[in-house]
Amino acid sequence: MAGTTQKAAAEKLRALHAAGVLVLPNAWDAGSAAVIALAGAQAIATTSGGIAWSLGRSDGQHLTRAEMIERIHPIVAAVTIPVTADIEGGYGPDPEDVALTVEGVIAAGAVGVNIEDSRAPGGPLFNPAEQAARIQAARAATASAGLPELFINARTDVFLYGIGVPQVRLDDVLTRCSAYANAGADGLFVPGLTDLQVITDLAKASPLPVNVMAGPGAPVVAELAAAGVRRVSIGTAIAQEAYTLAKRAAAELLTTGSYTQLEQALDFSTVNNMFTADRS
Fold first, then answer.
1. 25/47 Cα distance (integer angstroms)
2. Which residues constitute the domain of residue 100?
3. pTM score, two decimals?
4. Is the pLDDT of residue 279 over 60?
């Protein structure tokens, strides 16, 4: 059952959605979480893609429930700020599958979840009633696990996967949002949507705080905040940049024997001191 500290973290995560815009950098292991906290983040979201890559898998619901929960625990343990976990599609199609995943995530110490309405990468999606039942099961699981405060961010992949004709996608998202809100969701996550006018229209009409996935080519955080967005995350982008730096530094070392790519690296003591010697 969730304890006092976890409940306080859940309440803090909820409060961070109450005003302004919450910016959530995405972590994939304890080290990335610790440096994101060091940079000043108020909360952290995990990235399922980054976690999958760290295990030698491709993104797209290729992990098991147990594998994901095992990776969430050290991320939570590495920081003192709230962590919300990306649980992909819930690791099974049925409401009972989602409930088991939410219970496991709470046991691992997280205080929020993202749950997708896609059955598989690229679609198809669960219909609104099916996904609402899955969200309702997630909400019930928060109570049974002693953390009814857990923040459920309902992700819809209508825009990400180009579901339906463009002219009706916003209406589809709003229909889903209403169903998900009634089922107990606390936020709406719409990755793949970068059109500022459509984002503005969605934020005005949505009964839930809107979360978008940003990154290069997307509106900057200030523009998203002005459009009414309440939460911004960047998915796998930081993990991609970390792997890109590893490739650049390795290529430089192997070709010229120099180290300029490493000149701005955090020093050893700074990184080492982010962790305790005994994590038991």
1. 9
2. 4-238
3. 0.96
4. no
The total of structural domains in the chain comes to: 1
What one-letter code names the amino acid at 7? K
**pLDDT, tens only, 107-139:** 999 999 999 999 999 999 999 999 999 999 999
Q: What CATH number has the domain bearing residue 102?
A: 3.20.20.60
Return d(Cα 238, Cα 231) in angstroms, integer: 17
Tens-digit pLDDT profile for residues 14-25: 999 998 999 999
Task: Examine residue 52 and state whether it is found in any structural domain, yes or no.
Answer: yes
Q: Give the pLDDT score at 6.
A: 98
Distance CA(242)–CA(246), nearest Å, equals 6
